[in-house]
Design goal:
9% helix, 13% strand, four-stranded parallel β-sheet, disordered N terminus
């Protein structure tokens, strides 16, 4: 084996952002194997130099099947249930990326290249497997009104960086399983669920938002969403929150006290038309944040609790002056 084909243990962590052209690597511990399986692309072949039985036992896998195992974890698998009334596109893929998406109708093992369905197809389930080369989910299901539910069955990768407009306009989407969703390196979640007007609930408890800088319009137009728990959200690096909850007309209360908005510069229309909102626990704001019409068209029964050093908060955020809000400020 050529020396350039060998990656030593000290260098192996670089495989988190695998760009290596090496064909072979040497693995000496299960720690590194597990790390590799989360991020390894298909182009790398794992060649076993020494069969370490302790590693094999701890991982409970066949030591001779590393290649198959790595390929499994290099892809993303999701299952879509289409709406039985509306028929149209169920995924939006750029032509140059279609080779990285493997699509199967029902339980048919033969791959199809179609991205649209119609009534005559009688499709009850769509399985999609996405290869490692895909690094962006921008507009992945853009205006896919035929989708009723999505289940991300397998999502062990860290290379997805953009989820902007991912479910934009999915007006028939009623359920979505994100329990396996990986957002570790995502930096853009703007417009992510914008227009998901049939989505009544969503579990984001496993979302990692440490690297996100844009959450503008993230839940805009989720008009039937009754509650949302964002207590696990890290917003330290977020710059944009404008229209984040705009037109969420069924939301009754929301607790954002954990939000760090020190870097946010835009909160304009953040809660625009949240007409059912009765109680809102807010975050600390800063003098540089634009908050024009933040509560425009909200209910006159809205009760606010906010910890703010911004003396002009009330004048800026309530610029429309249509209602007399119950305003409680504490420092």
């Amino acid at each position: 084996m050529d020396s350039k084909d060998i990656i030593c243990e000290k260098e192996i962590e670089k495989l988190n952002i695998i760009k290596s052209e090496n064909k072979f690597i040497i693995i000496k511990s299960d720690y590194f194997i597990q790390k590799l399986f989360n991020n390894i692309p298909k182009k790398i072949t794992l060649k076993i130099i020494k069969n370490n039985m302790n590693i094999q036992k701890r991982l409970n896998i066949n030591i001779n099947n590393y290649k198959d195992f790595s390929e499994k974890f290099s892809s993303i698998e999701l299952e879509i249930i289409p709406n039985k009334i509306k028929y149209s596109s169920f995924i939006d893929i750029k032509e140059e990326n279609k080779k990285y998406f493997h699509i199967y109708f029902n339980d048919n093992k033969k791959e199809t290249k179609r991205t649209k369905i119609n009534k005559e197809d009688k499709v009850s389930k769509i399985t999609i497997i996405i290869d490692y080369q895909v690094e962006s989910f921008y507009r992945l299901f853009y205006y896919c009104i035929s989708i009723e539910s999505i289940n991300f069955k397998q999502f062990c990768r860290n290379n997805i960086i953009n989820m902007s407009c991912m479910f934009y306009g999915c007006s028939s989407l009623k359920g979505i399983n994100l329990s396996n969703f990986n957002t570790n390196n995502v930096n853009d979640m703007s417009y992510m669920f914008d227009g998901c007007s049939s989505l009544k609930e969503i579990n984001l408890s496993n979302f990692n938002t440490n690297n996100v800088n844009d959450m503008s319009y993230m839940f805009c137009g989720c008009s039937t969403l009754k509650e949302i728990n964002l207590t696990n959200f890290n917003t330290n690096n977020v710059t944009y929150m404008n229209c984040m909850f705009a037109c969420c007309s069924s939301l009754k209360e929301i607790n954002l006290s954990n939000f760090n908005t020190n870097n946010v510069t835009n909160m304009n229309f953040m809660f625009y038309k949240c007409s059912s909102l009765k109680e809102l626990i807010l975050f600390n704001t800063n003098n540089e944040t634009s908050m024009n019409f933040m509560f425009d068209r909200c209910s006159d029964e809205l009760k606010l609790k906010i910890q703010s050093q911004y003396k002009n908060f009330k004048e800026s955020a309530f610029e429309d002056k249509d209602f007399d809000f119950i305003f409680e400020q504490y420092l």
